[in-house]
Amino acid sequence: MESIDYIRCTSQLNFSLGYIGYNAPNSCAGLSERRLMADSIQHILNRLPRFAGHAGLRITELSGGITNRNYKIELDHEIYVLRIGGNETIHLGIDRRVEYGCTLAASRVGVAPEPIAFLEPEGYLVTRFVAGVGIPAEQIADAGTIRRVVASLKLYHALEQFPGQFSPFRVVETYEDTARRFGVSLPANMNRFLNLSREIETALRRDPFTPRPCHNDLLNGNFIDDGTRIRILDWEYGGLGDGFFDLGNFAAPHDFTPDQEELLLRAYFGIDDLGRDDPAGRLYGPRRARLKLMRVMSDLREAMWAMVQAGVSKLDFDYAGYGQKYFDRVEAAVSGAQYQNALAEF
Length: 346
Description:
Elements: E1 5-8, H1 17-20, H2 30-45, E2 58-62, E3 68-75, E4 78-85, H3 96-107, E5 115-120, E6 124-128, E7 133-134, H4 143-157, H5 168-181, H6 190-204, E8 212-214, E9 223-225, E10 230-232, E11 239-241, H7 243-251, H8 258-269, H9 274-277, H10 284-312, H11 319-334, H12 337-344
Parallel strand pairs: 1-5
Antiparallel strand pairs: 2-3, 3-4, 4-6, 5-6, 7-9, 8-11, 9-10
Helix pairs in contact: 4-8, 5-10, 6-10, 7-10, 10-11, 10-12
């Protein structure tokens, strides 16, 4: 692996990050706007020896980012990605140095893109470009795709060293406090959601987990199939935590059915025949329950993420409506006997 450029700069860049993030000025449009963007990106890249002074760089903004901006950088026959965090992401608990460390660690087992530069104080990250195809939502729950995603999860879950920490319970609490500070109108029954989080945490504490490296944002938009393996992008929420949150966070946004949950657990724990290997359900009872409870926490974290974004984001997006969708999902998930049965497993 090539050496990584880790550069600390004590002076701020002489351009508006807001321009290439969320606050693009109305006075710049069309070609002049694209030239300004290219000049700004070139300014950043000139701080790195491998890019400095190269007039032939091709810079293309990649689509799909909500909280960040990503740029494809082509130099000779090499392709890279420059990742620029949005100005407001600090309010989402994102630590760019931790993101870099998680990306680096996961790249060493072939899951994350390989980082080749990290620039401070802004936290810009340059990685190698991962060539491949995305995985559409309608394909993500296919049996073959689930097994391949699980194979990638197990690679980085087995890492011995990983920076940062992640708890969905602390995140929900922190996001609630942040949303209130920004004057966001939270649900009238917000205390109920906080109490649900505490109830789940109390139950799971009866069966302590061993912290392991987690990604914590396993949406299909973060997966790339490179033809050999499912690669995983965007490690900004990464940290040591409960591996079952990764499983729940993979299952929840893709609306896994009970059969798909079973396949997920069997693939992860290596048991092909549930009845034969565990006839009394002793092994899988708590695991099924933990997965279901972490699905609830995944949805609650997503709802609270939206509440913070409603207060800090400059994007024209209905974060309140998006968050309400996930609050409703939480309500639906905890209203039936399955939730109580899951709690009772611990």
